[in-house]
Amino acid sequence: MQRRMTLWAWLGIAVAVVWTLLPIYWFLKMSLLTPDEIARFPPPLVPLDPTPAAYFNIFGFDYQVTPELVRRASGQAGQIINGLINSLIVSIVVTAITMLVVVPLAYVFARLDFRFKQALLITILLSVALPPVSTLIPFYALYVQLGLAGTLFGLIVVTLTITIPFVTWMLIGYLRNLPPVERLARVDGYSRLETLVFIVIPLARSGIAVAAVIAFLFAWNEYTYALVLVNGTPANTLATALSGFLFQHPEPSHLAAALVVSILPPVLVAYFLQRHIAEMNLVDPIR
Amino acid sequence: MAGIRLDHLKKSFGAFTAVQDLDLDVTDGEFLVLLGPSGCGKTTTLNCIAGLETPSAGRILFDGRDVTSDPPHSRNIAMVFQSALLYPHMTAAANIEASLRRSDLAPEERRRRIDDAVSMLEIGDLLDKLPSEMSGGQRQRVATAKAIVRQPTAFLLDEPLSALDAALRMTLRAEIVNLQKRLGSTTVFVTHDQVEAMTMGDRIAVMNGGRLEQIGTPSEIYERPRSLFVAGFVGSPPMNLIRGEVADGVFAAGELRVPLAAAPGPVTLGVRPQHLHVRAEGGLPCAIFALERLGRETVLIVEDRARNRLRLLVEAEFEGRVGDPLDVAPDPARCLLFDDASGLIHAPAN
């Protein structure tokens, strides 16, 4: 029997939706306004005369609004483009390496028994509990000596130290709840590796897809390490590049447009994997 | 097809011994049921036969050949798991075919075997379905087809019916036995359900605490249980077990007196509900506690003055109300005596 949604449930959902979408709407709207409209008080709730000028400007193009009025390309366009490329490289590489490491790792912890399993698991998961700030200075000192500060490679390595433990922890819970197909696979003559590749991974594709989204989002949103390790270098990412604008008095619509651009990749990733996200039942990862 | 022999099989997990010193012979073409409560070692035993667990000690022989260290697929066994486990992301057809992936059959032979299994189990219309789209009974049939295409040395079934509803369980019970007899395949079937064991097995091996309590045909197990454990575990409604003492050729427990030729000492008397009768007088004075009408017969539960409960099987038309007084007496010829210390059956009590 399908239960009717109560008024309270609707109200709760409405609050959650407004809470989530209002800020996004606000700068989406702002990115389409003219400088005059932004300066107006009270600010307009909807863009009366929306113009995509800001989106051209932040990528380094002038935009002809009317024959007399041209909105000039943003001075930060180079940084935005560079940050966007760097962020994409870091996020894609981090996601790929994370999944390559985490799928077998989580599988072993979730489904096999071996000596010192609990101690090893705790060692891996401990790093989830460490706030990035606590390892920031050691990493920085180390990176300066190794010549890794200000490099994409260095940033990828440090981001992996966050994504691998966290995604492992997440995926262990998912894999634990799969039916005991390994015994069936052994009777059918699958080796352990074949079981993982041909049985477990296809079976767990939803969980693995969601884990990949999480890894991507972590890498994309990573800010603390990027701020210290790569900010102000050619390896700067979009997140730190954007935060830098706050001190440079940019055109507000440019900042807003750049923010919209920065949330696009995660939105796309989530959109294409939404079927898996809905399917995945995130049960208590640590029993 | 082959006989299976377990020779001093032992399996421990760390400090816990799941199976100890198990000797068991499954003859060619036999349907053997491993019966016992959960944790008795029956599934571990089956997993050892399958090769999913490596024994800590002892040997496993298929037709005299030592297979103890062979991996599962080279033993040529087929296994049906609890709740008829299938690969959830594969269709029925792919599940069945996976059984043959390590065999070097010619493609047409492969095809023929699959077709045979499919028609034998009447699952032609399920082949393109995923396990999640099938009912419990359909999954069971597909799992069975997956098992038989391999034409295995032995079928190993691990509580395959436990997750199904009662009516379906009954249907499939008969289907599995029928199929096993038609194929003549050596089969080991694990269950904790004594009705399943009694109805399906050629022989039953009752296990408890990692040990074999008794092995025999269903009627041997039922009529001559070797231990108190077997007596209490097999039979529905369960056997009445009454603790008492034998002195001067009479068993005495509270107000109950049964003339029995047995050595004096503390014992437990076991009597099946159908061998306990209602008497007008001269028996153990009881009062009716409950009546369970099963249609063909009625289970009468009575309570004596010391509040011990006994079960009797009486005719369906039995008239009585809760609280009615009556006397009950066991048939001395059908009473079994078990030693209190060892739990083993005493000398024949007749």
3D architecture notes:
The complex is a heterodimer of chains A (287) and B (350). By secondary structure, chain A is mainly alpha-helical. Chain A has 2 domains: 7-71, no CATH class; 77-279, MetI-like fold, CATH 1.10.3720.10. Chain A has helices at residues 7-31, 35-39, 53-58, 77-111, 117-129, 132-146, 152-176, 181-187, 192-203, 205-221, 224-229, 238-245, 252-272, 274-279, and strands at 63-64, 70-71. A two-stranded antiparallel sheet of chain A has the order 1-2. In chain A, helix 4 runs antiparallel to helix 10 (205-221) and helix 7 (152-176) packs antiparallel against helix 10. The longest helix of chain A is centred in the first third of the chain and has 35 residues, at 77-111. The radius of gyration of chain A is 23 Å and the shape is globular. Mean pLDDT of chain A is 86; it is low at 282-287. By secondary structure, chain B is an alpha+beta fold. Chain B has 2 domains: 4-227, P-loop containing nucleotide triphosphate hydrolases (Rossmann fold, 3-Layer(aba) Sandwich); 240-339, OB fold (Dihydrolipoamide Acetyltransferase, E2P), CATH 2.40.50. Helix content of chain B is 23%, strand content 35%. Chain B contains 8 helices and 20 strands. Chain B has helices spanning 42-50, 92-98, 107-120, 136-148, 166-183, 194-200, 218-223, 228-233, and strands spanning 4-13, 16-26, 31-35, 57-62, 65-66, 77-80, 154-158, 186-191, 203-208, 211-216, 240-247, 250-253, 256-259, 265-271, 276-279, 284-293, 297-304, 309-315, 325-330, 336-339. Chain B has a 6-stranded mixed sheet, with helices on both faces. A 5-stranded antiparallel sheet of chain B has the order 13-12-11-14-20. Chain B has a 5-stranded antiparallel sheet with strand order 15-19-16-17-18, with no helix packed on it. In chain B, helix 2 packs parallel to helix 4 and helix 3 (107-120) packs antiparallel against helix 4 (136-148). The chains are: A mainly alpha (287), B alpha+beta (350). Chain A binds chain B through residues 179-181, 183-190, 199, 202-203, 205, and chain B through 47, 50-52, 71-74, 77-79, 81, 85-89, 98-99, 101-102.
